[in-house]
Design a protein that fits this description.
Structural class: alpha/beta
GO molecular function, one term: uracil phosphoribosyltransferase activity
CATH architecture: 3-Layer(aba) Sandwich
Organism: Aspergillus kawachii (White koji mold)
CATH class: Alpha Beta
Number of strands: 12
Shape: globular
CATH topology: Rossmann fold
EC number: 2.4.2.9
Order of helices and strands: HEHHEEEHEEEEHEHEEEH
Strand content: 25-35%
Number of domains: 1
Radius of gyration: 18 Å
Helix content: 25-40%
Cofactor: Mg(2+)
Pathway: Pyrimidine metabolism; UMP biosynthesis via salvage pathway; UMP from uracil: step 1/1
Number of helices: 7
């Protein structure tokens, strides 16, 4: 089964959520992890997983009761969201999650971009580009990053967001595969951060790649594998 540590994470004050490991998700994750899966099938499976992640992440948007009148003139009490959403992509891989957010969210929506690259030898992350919308401080921010390995890039991203006035408690990391170490590091550094992931892998390789992982996400999604 996926994510042997998932049950423990879901108990941490509801801050870290791992998707239910049902057969549908496990089948998609098997396709994504298989080295023999071609780029088109990889991308198609990823998009299905991301829709589930976005739906779960939107559960962190605050809401209030709201009553409407149905076509047969009867009241129905449901909810309406009380905040907008901003999707902030960590480029390039995070951008692949934007369309699912556009398709799923019905309220006010904006997008930001962060370019963060990790030195392959030192694993130290550095921000090269940041563009955030003016109203981001009032929104719930979905930080879109498919892979969480050492946590360096996510830490840089959250530091950038909080330095621009976004409350830590308003940030939700949306993630396909996390390493246990990465989750430990990020949650220790930002105890108010929320995380929604599809899988948690126990190990990192000596080169700080997630193991068993799924390879280079960006190369496989965008078809740039050599």
């Amino acid at each position: 089964m996926e994510s042997s540590g998932a049950a423990a994470w879901t108990t941490q004050m509801d801050r870290i959520t791992v998707l239910e490991q049902d057969r549908s998700l496990l089948n998609l994750m098997t396709i994504i992890r298989d080295l023999n899966t071609n780029d088109r099938d990889f991308s198609a499976a990823v998009e299905k997983v991301v829709r589930r992640l976005i739906t779960a992440a939107l559960g962190h948007v605050p809401a209030e009761e709201y009553t409407v009148t149905t076509p047969i003139n009867k009241p129905y009490t449901g909810i309406r969201f009380t905040k907008g959403v901003c999707g902030v992509s960590i480029l390039r891989a995070g951008a692949c999650m934007e369309q699912a957010l556009r398709d799923t969210w019905t309220g006010p929506l904006s997008f930001g971009k962060l370019l963060i690259q990790r030195d392959e030898e030192t694993s130290i992350a550095k921000i090269y580009y940041s563009k955030l919308p003016a109203g981001i401080t009032d929104d719930i921010v979905l930080l879109l990053e498919p892979m969480l390995a050492t946590g360096g890039s996510v830490i840089k991203a959250v530091e950038n967001l909080t330095s621009n006035g976004v409350p830590e408690e308003s940030i939700v990391l949306v993630n396909v595969v996390s390493s246990q170490k990465g989750l430990d590091v990020v949650s220790g550094r930002f105890p108010g951060l929320k995380v929604v992931a599809a899988a948690v892998d126990a190990e990192l390789t000596a080169q700080n790649y997630i193991s068993p992982g799924l390879g280079d996400f960006g190369d496989r999604y965008y078809g740039t594998t050599h």
